[in-house]
Design brief:
It contains 19 helices and 13 strands. It is α/β, with parallel strands linked by helices. The chain is elongated and about 120 Å long. The two termini are about 55 Å apart. A hairpin with a 2-residue loop joins strand 4 and strand 5.
């Protein structure tokens, strides 16, 4: 293989001999030019093709097919340029390795600590640095009290040639330059508000400089870990390998389900039909469920939800997948110990399919206010732009609904005649809706048992758990990112985040 140290003397000798021969024979300089150009091409190829090892031996490792690069800087730091480079790296969420001169080692550490450089690694470039870093390679770690330098030994396996920092594992900073405490803070702010606002909160409340990308990556990583653990529990539930939940009997256990859409990036809606014809979908549906207990009711007989008893679970997934998820949540909340079990939702078919499959024997209730909304929608079609007639008609039909006289309501709807074909079809559809859900609309009977007949808890959950975080202006999610944040928010709002973090430490 051609090497610079062998090519260079050969070229020099050849050039001298050719020049002498050309001068002696009075020949053209063209051969000389060709030799010089050939030499230049060889130098260029050797400079850009590192694998040729033209100038010096080259060692490299890694997957050459991956779209990644390693950034290194030598013989620093040099101010203000090092600080400017660090600012660019932090803005881009990138990392680099800085090999510093031993005589500037103290300056390098000072720069790292001052900037809280979560993208800075320091490696000894001279033996003089070893005296300043007696424990080995140093790394800047962002802690809850600011940036700190951790000096730890590096171990290289003589067999597999893989290196490791055992201290990183012990301190839980492996593959992360944020301490566990900072990661916990990033997860909390990332779950509660936008990533940019979370970055601002970290600065205002803790005086910690982090990037928006750091908040996003950390919050989504922790949320993804929570979601993965839930999936493992779901698989155990499918195999009927659930632990027996021991405790006192629960008088009434309520399960409510609903769905809401969140905006997603265009790639997540490819091939999906939107709500209007010939329009692509712009949102994906998040299915959300909640479980809460009820022990008592007020003087008028209206049910009272037990304080602090509501837990949530949700994700962007199919109804079949969500059915297993809500079943697991109900089981963890004491489904097997509940004396009275209630499933409440709107008229969506997927909800009742889940109820029939996973919660047989439970009392099924259609949200009363959702059922009333069906009457109002039909009234607007029967009497367009006639509010007085709409209210009068709804008042008559609503009494039948509230009294649980669904058969009488259905007969009343089927008796309506109209020359409008579309209106006749709408009337038939609504009559079928009430007829199909008649056994879920015995509201007087449900009230005598002091049960909830409205799905206000889950509807509020759709707004607080999902909407307030995932439907803010300018937000567009990937399914992976949204599911991670949803899992994190459900864990937080359900009061389980501290337990999760306790298991992590």
């Amino acid at each position: 293989m051609l090497k610079y140290r062998t090519i260079n003397p050969v070229f020099q000798m050849s050039l001298i001999l050719l020049l002498v021969y050309t001068w002696a024979e009075s020949l053209s300089l063209l051969p000389v030019l060709i030799l010089v150009l050939t030499y230049g091409v060889v130098l260029a190829i050797g400079s850009f093709v590192l694998s040729a090892q033209f100038f010096l031996p080259v060692k490299w490792k890694g997957n050459g097919k991956s779209n990644s690069i390693a950034i290194t800087f030598d013989d620093g730091p040099t101010e203000p340029y090092t600080s400017q480079i660090l600012d660019v790296l932090r803005t881009c969420g990138a990392r680099a390795t800085f090999f510093v001169l031993g005589t500037r080692a103290e300056t390098a550490l000072a720069v790292a600590i001052t900037l809280g450089a979560d993208a800075l690694l320091i490696g000894p470039a001279q033996t003089a640095l070893a005296g300043l870093l007696p424990l080995g390679v140093a790394v800047v770690v962002l802690t809850v009290v600011g940036a700190a330098v951790a000096r730890r030994p590096y171990y290289l396996c003589s067999h597999c040639h893989e290196g490791q920092f055992p201290v990183d594992v012990e301190l839980d900073i492996e593959r992360s330059q944020n301490s566990p405490g900072v990661r916990r803070m990033l997860a909390v702010v990332g779950a509660d508000t936008s990533f940019e606002h979370g970055r601002e909160q970290m600065k205002v409340l803790a005086d910690l400089e982090v990037t928006t990308k750091a908040v996003e990556r950390t919050a989504e990583a922790i949320g993804a870990d929570i979601a993965q653990r839930e999936q493992q529990q779901i698989q155990r539930a499918v195999q009927l390998d659930l632990p027996v939940v021991v405790g006192e009997m629960i008088p009434i256990l309520h399960i409510q389900m609903d769905a809401t859409g969140i905006p997603v990036v265009k790639a997540e809606t490819t091939g999906r039909q939107g709500k209007t014809d010939e329009q692509p979908a712009r949102t994906r549906e998040v299915k959300l469920g909640c479980v809460f207990t009820q022990t008592t009711w007020d003087e008028e007989g209206y049910p009272i939800r037990d304080s602090g008893s509501t837990t949530y679970t949700g994700a962007i997934e199919t109804a079949e997948q969500f059915g297993k998820r809500i079943y697991l949540e109900a089981w963890k909340r004491g489904w097997s110990r509940a004396e009275t079990k209630v499933v409440l939702g709107d008229g969506a078919e997927w909800i009742w399919n889940i109820a029939d499959q996973h919660f047989p024997g439970a009392i099924q209730i259609v949200d009363l206010y959702h059922a009333r909304q069906h009457l109002w929608e039909l009234a607007r079609k029967l009497y367009p732009n006639q509010e007085v007639k709409q209210k009068r008609w709804v008042m008559v039909q609503k009494h039948k609904l509230d009294d649980g006289k669904i058969e009488k309501l259905v007969r009343s709807l089927r008796s309506i005649e109209s020359p409008d074909v579309q209106l006749t079809e709408d009337i038939r559809t609504e009559a079928n809706y009430f007829e199909k859900n008649a056994h879920r609309m015995r509201y007087p009977e449900f009230r005598r048992q002091h049960l909830f007949v409205g799905s206000g808890v889950i509807e509020a959950g759709c707004k607080t758990v999902i909407g307030s975080r995932a439907k803010q202006s300018g937000m567009f999610w990937t399914v992976r990112g949204a599911n991670a944040i949803i899992a994190l928010r459900c864990c937080r709002i359900s009061g389980r985040f501290e337990d999760y973090w306790e298991k992590q430490s």
